[in-house]
């Protein structure tokens, strides 16, 4: 990179100058009015989510390149849309910047964001750049969804089973490997890198939705159901345990989870104890997978179509508690809770 | 107010505790999922705008109460939607807060925001509250518009005239009165307060839209036009001069503005010189009025229906310059520009 360019700071070109440079990351036909205009499909609901990220609180140059910070910020918002069953339409980006941030840092942030967004053909449709003592990123993502196919937390039902997409725990272990490079010495370099990539470049599971809806529609037809099969769920951004507990609380049900069924990254087995693996899987967070509750037949079809990266890990129960069951071990059942669940397990 | 309550700080109840307290400002049926769900009308485009506001840069406790900061932030975003011809659907609010901000301050901010929003029946549909070294407010507003009735900057045409809604300059003078309470001594208290209120509680001109569209539809019919009358425009948040120049640049046209036609707050005439009045009107900013370009007949009908608060101030011309003409004076015509236009005028 040209040294002159890489040392150019925001104060040298001002917010307006920076905005002009960043316009190459946005579709040209959308820029230039007081607001962006986007076409919508008929009979769809609008789905909106927003996130705010602050330097030193939510990202840091110590562990995260600007490209990765951008990717992760975009991915987190897209994951919220995926968790609602929505097709993303675009995002807006608000950016607060100290004047001594380099232009290169900002362009690398946008590079990472657009790398993630372009995987799903999603544009940045608007933004605002302002002076601030601390680098701050505010993203709002919006999508559309058929009102009959919206995934909510509060609609889990008795006899539903719980499906998770992908493995859990990898993002947190990837972060540990970044923070403490001396650990995981006997992991193969590619295993180590895979875990780090899981942390740096999470993939929102928008790919699950078309598969899910096809199964729901065909099974609703086969079973001649009066109303379509309902899918409840959310994403596991705040941890798998949190997702299960939130869904159960919102739906006024409980669940029994089979610990051995939770898919883990392959490196965990040869490196971590079962207890530690489970701790990371349940409480690690930021895996951005989907946790879905639906009847057993469509659930099985979904898991089969998604392949080894998905599993049925439990069942919805009437009692409003979430039980963690450890098959083939002598560990007694445990009651999961956000505040103390895992501390109890670790004893 | 209860002293205990007013001294409660964000650190005492945490972001989660604060979020729970702020939920009373949001419709209860919208909260609780990964994203908000909103119904849309068929065949409408989605219109999205976003703003970021930082303590000490865009608002300050020295001049602005938290209620007014909230009102102004909401109004600015709604004004962007009005400027596009869009009907607002909702806003999201991202909030970065230092732990020592009082809960009362945040609640007063939300109080001001919802006071403005409720005038137009617009809900806060989502948000994010995070820890930050500096109070930061990120608002995204979204609305819907009939694709045939979207107001853009780039569609001003020859023979259009330029309409402004409301008076200009009042917001900036209101700010001056707040910053320097000793000025404007001979203004009546109610005049002073009116100017201060113009600054503290600007009204986005959403009320203009139904009147405008009715005139456009009926005149298009009367004149038996093949295609509907096009309305170009934007809001005057960055100043009236800026709005006229931006529209002309985007439309590749020019304009001639009659300085005596620009509506001013009534207090200006007895207090300020004509030069100073015009400087505030053109460059003061934050009046959040609409600047619209449309053919003379519907323009006249619009001004008549809006009453004394609106005027035709000029005409679109082919030459790509904006000329300020001073009728009945010996001041020569001036060329308006953003960078030097007014400095020239002040000489």
Task: Compile the SSE list and pairings.
Two copies of one chain form a homodimer.
Chain A (H helix, E strand, L loop, with lengths): L2 H5 L2 H13 L13 E3 L6 E10 L11 H18 L3 E11 L5 H17 L4 E8 L4 E10 L15 E5 L4 H10 L9 H12 L7 H15 L9 E4 L4 H12 L2 E5 L7 H6 L2 H10 L6 E5 L1 H11 L3 E8 L4 E4 L8 E3 L4 H6 L1
Parallel strand pairs in A: 3-4, 8-11
Antiparallel strand pairs in A: 2-5, 3-5, 6-9, 6-10, 7-9, 8-10, 11-12
Helix pairs in contact in A: 3-4, 5-6, 7-11
What would your notes on this structure say?
The structure is a homodimer of 347-residue chains. In chain A, the strands form two sheets. Chain A has a seven-stranded mixed beta sheet, with helices on both faces. In chain A, strand 3 (87-97), helix 4 and strand 4 form a beta-alpha-beta unit. Chain A folds into two domains: 3-146, 60s Ribosomal Protein L30, Chain: A; 151-346, PurM-like C-terminal domain (Phosphoribosyl-aminoimidazole Synthetase, Chain A, domain 2, Alpha-Beta Complex). Chain A has helices at residues 3-7, 10-22, 66-83, 103-119, 170-179, 189-200, 208-222, 240-251, 266-271, 274-283, 296-306, 341-346; strands at 36-38, 45-54, 87-97, 124-131, 136-145, 161-165, 232-235, 254-258, 290-294, 310-317, 322-325, 334-336. With 347 residues, chain A is an alpha+beta fold. Chains A and B meet through strand 1, strand 2, helix 3, strand 3 and strand 4 of A and strand 1, strand 2, helix 3, strand 3 and strand 4 of B. Strand 2 of chain A pairs antiparallel with strand 1 (36-38) of chain B.
């Amino acid at each position: 990179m040209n040294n002159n360019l890489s040392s150019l700071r925001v104060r040298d070109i001002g917010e307006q100058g920076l905005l002009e440079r960043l316009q190459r990351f946005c579709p040209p036909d959308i820029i230039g009015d007081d607001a962006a205009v986007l076409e919508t499909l008929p009979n769809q609901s609008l789905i909106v989510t927003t996130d705010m990220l602050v330097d030193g609180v939510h990202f840091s140059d110590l562990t995260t390149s600007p490209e990765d910070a951008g990717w992760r910020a975009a991915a987190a918002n897209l994951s919220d849309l995926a968790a609602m069953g929505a097709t993303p339409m675009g995002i807006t980006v608000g950016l607060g910047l100290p004047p001594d941030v380099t232009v290169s840092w900002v362009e690398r942030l946008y590079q990472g964001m657009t790398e993630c967004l372009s995987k799903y053909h999603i544009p940045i449709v608007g933004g605002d750049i302002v002076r601030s003592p601390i680098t701050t990123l505010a993203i709002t993502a919006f999508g559309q969804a058929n009102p009959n196919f919206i995934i909510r937390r509060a609609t889990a039902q008795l006899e539903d089973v719980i499906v998770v997409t992908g493995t859990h725990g990898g993002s947190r272990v990837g972060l540990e490997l970044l923070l403490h490079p001396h650990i995981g010495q006997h992991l193969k370099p590619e295993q180590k890198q895979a875990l780090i990539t899981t942390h740096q470049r999470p993939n929102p599971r928008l790919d699950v939705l078309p598969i899910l809806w096809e199964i729901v529609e065909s099974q609703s037809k086969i079973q001649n159901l009066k109303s379509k099969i309902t899918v409840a769920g959310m994403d596991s951004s705040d941890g798998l345990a949190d997702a299960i507990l939130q869904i159960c609380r919102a739906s006024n049900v409980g669940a029994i989870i089979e610990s051995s069924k939770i898919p883990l990254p392959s490196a965990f087995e040869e490196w971590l104890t079962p207890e530690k693996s489970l701790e990371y899987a349940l409480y690690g967070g930021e895996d951005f997978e989907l946790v879905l509750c639906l009847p057993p037949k469509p659930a099985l079809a979904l898991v089969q179509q998604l392949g080894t990266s998905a599993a049925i890990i439990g069942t919805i129960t009437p009692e409003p508690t979430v039980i963690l069951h450890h098959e083939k071990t002598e560990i007694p059942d445990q009651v999961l809770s956000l505040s103390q669940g895992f501390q109890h397990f670790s004893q």
